[in-house]
Design brief:
374 residues; mainly alpha
Length: 374
Amino acid sequence: MTSELSEKEVPKVESATSSSIKRIARFMGFRVIMLIVTIVIGVYATILIANMGGYVDTIMRNNIRETTIMEVAQLTANKAIAPEARQKMVQDMIDLEEKRLGLDTPFVIRSFNYLWNGLRLELGRAQYMVSDSGSRTVRLILLERLPATLLLMGSSQLILFFVSVFLALMLSRSYGSFWDKLVIALSPTSAAPPWFYGIFFILIFAAILKVLPFGGMVDSPPPDTTIGYALNVLKHLILPASSLIVAALFFSIYNWRTFFLIYSSEDYVEMAKAKGLNARDIERRYILRPTLPTIITNFALLLIGLWTGATITETVFLWPGLGRTIFRAIGYYDTAVIVGSTIIYAYLLAFTVFLLDFVYALVDPRVKVGGGNN
């Protein structure tokens, strides 16, 4: 009898497994298609915005004409040249420069070329910006500035995240205490942007107290030893990192504290308390575990956000990171650098969103990849 039941159950198990595989495959295929569509739309929108719908071409043509006229005037200042010859020289130089920059091709065609190259991670060459080595390759320009941004954003955002979650968890245990009320009172201070605090930090610690540098990443000339160089970089890191942390600290603590309080007031938490379970066990099993998907999501998005840098803060502190590079690229209308940074961020975001669905299924048994009841 047992063998007969086992033989009947085997097809059911195989059918359930096959159904789960098909469900996951359909889900993965659908997610990949939707993410690709989102990336294409986002990147093309960036191209249109960076070029102001093609108006940047007009600005560039006017700049080329003005620059060329001035160059020809200097070259022919002491030469007797007919106005027609001078005009032809100007037009030839303009045509040559426009061809070099690709302005001889309609913007609509170039926009799709930008899109196709960007999706293949062929970031091309910058029009105006150069790397420290003198290269106009967008990939080198971005990679050259990436370590500085990872150092600044990584240190500040990781400290901010873990300190906020830790302190918020402590405050959720002592609702209504003095420290809880203090954090609530100070949370509006996060309305000011990081660069605002950065300016005050520069005024106090650099200009008045003269204990920290005004900006930059290292002294000039830099220290000769490796340890000295590292300590000097850390010294320059203190003010920009502190401004990023202080600007968001109290609101982040308040946000997480409220989040933990909501979960700590659930019925199953009250039941666990009534059963006499240890407070630490209740916090770990009934509060932290259900909130893991949200915590993981915020942490993953934080890691992706490291790529974009802190545009204005890096500019204020003359920090040679990606944020300052993108800021300069916008000022120069350097589309290649803007699109290159955006496409990498888009791929990182899409890849993270895709993986989060599987992470949710691992940390929360209530979540099934692809949905369904099987």
